[in-house]
Amino acid sequence: MSKESAPVGVRRLGRVLYITLSRPALKNAINEDMVTTLYRNLREAAQDDSVGAVVLEGSGDAFCAGADIKNLALGAEHTRKYSTEVLLRVGAEAAMLLHEMPKPTIAMIRGPAMGGGLSLALACDFRVADSTASLSYAHTKIALSGDFAAAYFLSKWMGAGKAREFCLLNPVYGAQEAFASGLLSKVCEDSELEADVERLATRLAEGPTNALACIKANLKNAQEMSCENYIAEEIKNFQRCRNSDEHREALKAFIEKREPNFPRQQVRG
């Protein structure tokens, strides 16, 4: 496959990695190549200490319209390298990487974020959109139950009751309604979306990476563990931070009334 036709693009801006879903003629609809490439890029980003934050975006005027419906309608499963079950697992694991990797993730949303595309957006720590954003579960419309951990994330951000309404009735939320429902973190002016996301991503990427990873772990553990087990893990994470060079530099900078200069791994060539 040529570079020009790659379904997922990557670019670096300092410590921020931008991952772009890139099938703009089809509103970045998800196919086999896209989901497997996305998973590989996310796995590499999670393990790369020179990456401080990840931004997921769509090419053109859409974030991601969900599955490639034409391929579904044609019954193209027999032409693929992987089975439907494997691709569903890979997509769900890509979403969980966005949610659980030890660094902040941001979805930059313009236009539709639907079906599996909505799942990928909701997996991110921050979902920042402009006024053109439209969010929908979408699976209901084509008599499917959902994929890429969609209901898992909807229940987290909306609450169980609103998630049931959103999935079963399948409304399309505009940006402001999605923000009011907790699906979006922020709605920007259309002309300011990219600059706002860049500022947010840079701030996070230049922050205390080890501490942010431990905070994400605490937030995950708080929802999944008993109080006793959570406190034990919280203490371990505190000690991990307390004994780090990052923390020592932050304390020194505070005392010296300057911005910290955290120890960093160099960007990989």
Automatic annotation (TrEMBL):
Pfam families membership: ECH_1
Q: Where in the cell is it found?
A: Peroxisome
Q: Identify the enzyme class.
A: isomerase
Under the heading InterPro entries, the entry gives:
ClpP/crotonase-like_dom_sf, ECH/Chromodomain_protein, Enoyl-CoA_hyd/isom_CS, Enoyl-CoA_hydra/iso, Enoyl-CoA_hydra_C
Domain of life from the UniProt record: Bacteria
Q: Which CDD domains match?
A: crotonase-like
Protein name per UniProt: 2-(1,2-epoxy-1,2-dihydrophenyl)acetyl-CoA isomerase
